[in-house]
Each structure stands twice: as structure tokens, then as C-alpha cells.
Amino acid sequence: MFGKSATFAIALAILAASGCASYPPRDPALDDARLSLDAAARNPQVAMYASAEFAQATAALRQAENLAASGAQYNDVHQLAIAASQRAATAQDVARLRSEQAALAAQRTATDARMQANVTQQQAAAAQLQAAEAQRQADQAQRLAAGPAAEYYRRRDNEPLYEAPVTWVRAVMGPAQQRCWVERQVVDTGSPGINVPGAVVGGVVGGILGHQIGSGRGRDFATGIGAVGGAVVGANVGRDAAGTVYTQDVQRCANVSTSAVDYWDVTYNFRGYEHHVQTTSPPGRTIWVNGQGEPRV
């Protein structure tokens, strides 16, 4: 009796040992997966650049742990634990790659910003130079307005001179002049109804009669007086007494353009800058200037 009991106990121990060998109480792959996810969770780059990949690794580990707790097959648990470790490593790699790309993009942005800043500084410097040149020309114009141009353009003692090429010349004509003259005009102070045919006939007859008087300029003057007087008489023929037609001197004026050149507007180039000057005579191909580009004679 005792011998059978001992034999049964030994068999049970062997079966138990065999069962432990088929279903280990703990899978080392689960421990590795937990360590991999913990390392990924401590990496701030993963949270910023690979949150989706880390979530996939976490889901795989949770599923493996649930299967192990429910007594599922060892291989199923093992495969899920390995997948969780691999996904945690992928999350680390993806986070590192995306972090490097973000750093390169930030570097390019910083470089572009520096280049733009340099261009802006260069443009600002060029604008300052142009403003200074414009101010210098304005000062020159004021000095010219304050004193005689010839005296200002005169060369100073031992002042070095340079030839500057003339690039453009414009002749500015003088302003239009008003010219006035006096002419005789027929004036009607009465009601409408001037005898136009009578005025025409009277003017012709008066001119013929006046032409018979005198000679030379006197004859021309008499012809004009006769024509005007005859026109007045003829215009009044057949009119009532309420109206009167007479002549008077009337001044006429008109603006007449002049063909005289007032001055020459000259543009020349000196050391890369355009300059302007007004001269009283046409310039040649070049003009003499000093070191500041001011014209000299």
C-alpha cells in the first residue's frame, strides 16, 4: 500500500514538472517589451515626433499581457511581446529621424532669415547712399539758387578735376510771351437787325473811295478808314433810330511761343551716380567735375 502511494506521488511530480516545462510561468520577452516601452516613454522626442508608433507598441504589449493573464498559448504571448519590443524600437528610430529633419528645417529657416536680413541691410545701405546723394544734389541746387551759377561752378585753387560723360541733354525752351495789338471793331448798341449786306457794300465802296486819296502808306491808311466808315454807314442803312453802330479800338492779346532756348538740362554720370546740372550753353560729350561730382568751369 505504501509503495503504490509513493509511486503515484512520483508520477504526479513528473507530470507537474512536465506541465511547467510546457507553460513557463513568466515569458522573458514580456520583460524585454516592458523595458523597451519604458525607454521609449522616457525619450521626449518620441512623445513629440512618434506618438502614433509608441501607441501601437503599447497596444501590442497590453494585448500580450492580457493573453498571458488569461492562460493563452505561450507562442501567441511570445510573438506579441516581441512585436511590442520591435514597435517600441521603431518609435525610437522614427522619433530620431523626424527630430533630425526638424532640426535641418529649422537650420534652413534660420539661414534663409539671415540671408534675407543681409539683403535688407544691403538695400538699406544702398537707400542711405541714394538719400545722401539726393541731399547733396539738393544742397547744390540751393547753393546755385542763392548765388550766381558761374561763380559757384568756378574751379577752386588746386582742385583736381575729372571728366564725366554726358548721358542726356534736353533743351528747355523759354516761356511763351504775350503779344498784344489794337484793332478796330464794329460795335452795335441797338436792337438786332444790323444791315449786313449794307455793311459789306459800304465797306467795299468806302475802301474804293479811300484808295483814291494820297499815296504810299497814306493811301493804305485812307483805304482802311474808308472801308471801316463805309461798313458803319452801310450797317445803319434801314435801321431804326433806337440802334447805333460805331467802331472802337479793341486790344487783342495772345500767347506766342518762342523759339529761343532758355537753358540746357544736362545729365552726367560720375563714379556710378547720376548728376544733373543746368547750363546756359549746350555741353560737349563730357563735362569737368570735382571729386564730389560738382561741375566746374
State the strand order across the main sheet: 5-4-1-6
Structural class: alpha+beta
* Average of pLDDT: 76
Quote the distance from N terminus to C terminus: 146 Å
Radius of gyration: 57 Å
SSE succession: HHHHHHEEHHEEEE
- Proportion in β-strands: 15-25%
Helix content: 55-70%
Number of domains: 3
Q: What oligomeric arrangement do these chains adopt?
A: single chain
Overall geometric form: elongated
What does the largest sheet look like? 4 strands, antiparallel
Number of strands: 6
Tally of helical segments:
8
Low-confidence stretches: 1-23
What does this structure look like?
Residues 1-23 have low confidence and may be disordered. This protein has helices at residues 2-22, 28-41, 44-49, 51-69, 74-146, 149-153, 196-211, 216-236, and strands at 162-173, 177-188, 245-256, 261-270, 273-279, 286-289. Helix 7 runs antiparallel to helix 8 (216-236). It folds into three domains: 1-146, no CATH class; 147-174 and 259-289, OB fold (Dihydrolipoamide Acetyltransferase, E2P) (Beta Barrel); 177-256, no CATH class. The strands form two sheets. A four-stranded antiparallel β-sheet has the order 5-4-1-6, with no helix packed on it. A hairpin with a 2-residue loop joins strand 4 and strand 5 (273-279). The protein is elongated. The N and C termini lie far apart (146 Å). The chain has 297 residues and is an alpha+beta fold. It is built from eight helices and six strands; from the N terminus they run H-H-H-H-H-H-E-E-H-H-E-E-E-E.
